[in-house]
Amino acid sequence: MFKKLKICVVGLGYVGLPLAVSLARHFRVIGFDINKKRIEELLSGVDRTGEVEDAEDLTQENLEFTSDPSRIGECNFIIVAVPTPVDKLKNPDLSFLKSASETVGRHMKPGSVVVYESTVYPGATEEVCVPILEKESGLKWKKDFFVGYSPERVNPGDKEHTLEKIVKVVAGDTPETLELIAEVYGKIIKAGVYKAPDIRTAEAAKVIENIQRDINIALINELALIFHRLGLDTKEVLKAAGTKWNFLKFEPGLVGGHCIPVDPYYLAHKSLEVGYVPELILAGRRINEFIPIYIAHELVKYLIKTGKKVKGARVLVLGASFKENVPDVRNSKVFEILKELKDFQVTTILYDPVANKEEVKEEYGVDLEEDFSLHTPYDAILFAVRHKIFLEKFNLETLRKLCNDPPILFDVKGVFDREEAQKMGFIYWRL
Q1: I need a labelling partner for 417 at 20 to 30 A (CA). Which of 14, 199, 340, 400 fits?
Q2: How much is the pLDDT for 308?
Q3: What's the CA gap between 404 and 389, in Å, rounded?
Q4: With contact defined as beta carbons under 8 Å apart, do 421 and 396 qualify?
Q5: Could you list the mean pLDDT of each consecutive 10-residue stretch along the chain, which spans 431 residues?
Q6: What are the Cα distances from residue 105, in Å, to 59, 68, 70, 115, 136?
Q7: Which among 140, 138, 200, 146 has a CA at the least distance from the CA of 169?
Q8: Catalytic residues
């Protein structure tokens, strides 16, 4: 079967591109994306996400990139890796998944296997995607084509836990489909594959991975809210508690991106559909969604306490992406802080050399500042994202020179030492 196998990866973002690159070392692969600019960049050996750094990986003999959907028909093993966000009402937005399924259905040939990697609620693959594939192709499921599910486990910016080093969960609609999918992924996943008993189980496993993390962070964020009122340093409390062997070491912070703050709503949607209100899951979401607003309000309070005018106050915000060392700004909670500060008529200057300037402007209508020194002195500095480049570029002394008196430093990630900051005259705050 492998001799006849040709793979198409639909969607070449943070998930699809590394997958296509890895598979191309063993199979003939076509990478398809509707974004023509993205395809042009990849053909020139450039990956703006930074996930594939070696241009030679993008120019492998077995790897092709295209925005022509008809080329999907050349392949008999199709992997769909497109975004599954939520809408403004926090309901699952399956528009990308449905559109991709329509495109695949229109072009796939009999005998094809379609594997979905996108995060969904249990049942979505068989209830939503399969009917679209049948309708568009005119083929019959489990007779003319087959489907599987293998949830992505990519951690953007993580050079240690790469695709090949993370166990891959796989599932199929028949035992034969499962075996084929396991063999294909087994070629590239050194950590091995785990065969789930069915597709719905694999779908559920994916969403609870991120729900568990979301709830754990929500607990620590809530503790931070409590400790602030008690006059305690959350970081010091966690350090003390962390001396016990079974204490889980999470830290407070902004929960952004396209996984952790999104996936809980997918399971919540399905849970409500079957008549159960997921209290804990939604409570965790409410806490984490509140943190950006809390940080903005605390900053306004500190401006007032130090005798500075709130209206027109200049605040340097360091970091725009949703996590350190990645350019991705989708669902970054930094912009919710900016929005809240804007309501108080605070002027924010956003600096992030890692983030993509065009994407920030397109997504949020905000300009990234290229020369932050033009707006000095600042009334406060908000250190929002722990980029490696920031740790190399900024120390307490350099930050102090950017501020007027008294200098205010909001260290969201707890990068700096509190005592050292206070010795240098900073009014220091951390989550």
Answers
A1: 340
A2: 96
A3: 24
A4: yes
A5: 83 94 95 95 87 82 95 97 94 97 97 97 98 98 98 79 90 97 96 97 96 97 98 96 95 93 96 97 97 98 97 97 92 97 97 92 93 92 96 95 96 95 96 93
A6: 28, 14, 11, 13, 5
A7: 200
A8: 259
Cis before 85 (ω within 30): no
pLDDT for the residue numbered 2: 55
Q: What is the 3-state secondary structure of the chain?
A: CHHHCEEEEECCCCCHHHHHHHHCCCCEEEEECCCHHHHHHHHCCCCCCCCCCCHHHHCCCCEEEECCHHHHHHCCEEEECCCCCECCCCCECCHHHHHHHHHHHHHCCCCCEEEECCCCCCCHHHHHHHHHHHHHHCCCECCCEEEEECCCCCCCCCCCCCHHHCCEEEEECCHHHHHHHHHHHHCCCCCCEEECCCHHHHHHHHHHHHHHHHHHHHHHHHHHHHHHHHCCCHHHHHHHHCCCCCCCCCCCCCCCCCCCCCHHHHHHHHHHHCCCCCHHHHHHHHHHHHHHHHHHHHHHHHHHHCCCCCCCCEEEEECCCCCCCCCCCCCCCHHHHHHHHHHCCCEEEEECCCCCHHHHHHHHCCCECCCHHHHCCECEEEECCCCHHHHHHCCHHHHHHCECCCCEEEECCCCCCHHHHHHCCCEEEEC
pLDDT value of residue 112 = 97
Encoded amino acid at 65, one letter: F
Task: Report the distance separating Cα 318 and Cα 351, nearest Å.
Answer: 5
pLDDT at 266: 97
Per-residue pLDDT at 54:
77
The pLDDT score that the predictor gives to residue 155 is 77
Query: Taking the mean position of all CA atoms in its chain, how far away is CA 267?
Result: 17
Closest to 148 in 3D by CA, of 242, 80, 60: 80
> Are 315 and 382 contacting, i.e. CB atoms less than 8 angstroms apart?
yes
For the chain, the residue count is 431
How far, rounded to the nearest angstrom, does the alpha carbon of residue 407 sit from its chain's CA centroid? 33
